[in-house]
What we know:
The protein is α/β, with parallel strands linked by helices and 123 residues long. Helix content is 39%, strand content 21%.
Amino acid sequence: MAEIVVAADTSWVINDVRAALGDERFTIHEVADPRAVVAAVGEFAPAVVIVDLQIGSMGGMAITRAVRDAFAGGVETAPPVILLLDRDADAFLAGRSGAAGWVRKPFSSGDLRAAIDQLVPAP
């Protein structure tokens, strides 16, 4: 079972992620406080981190950088981050922040699963 950390502070985003990924393949851990994401990543060692672009005072791009920077081995040891974007224009900034992938909100289950499947091989 793959661990996933979801960083979002709005219930509809969490609900949509759970609906898209809520099966026996994943265990989902929710984090509403952007300052607690790095600790959650350390605790759960997720296969992927899903971050809402608009979360709290840090924002998704800052969280992406913080997750990457928290690992001594750099990009190779940090879990990949998928950003949930508000508009297509944010894709440029998502790439600059080091996100491994992104999906535009509102997203379909298929869109999110496709992004996850590129990063987490099926068992």
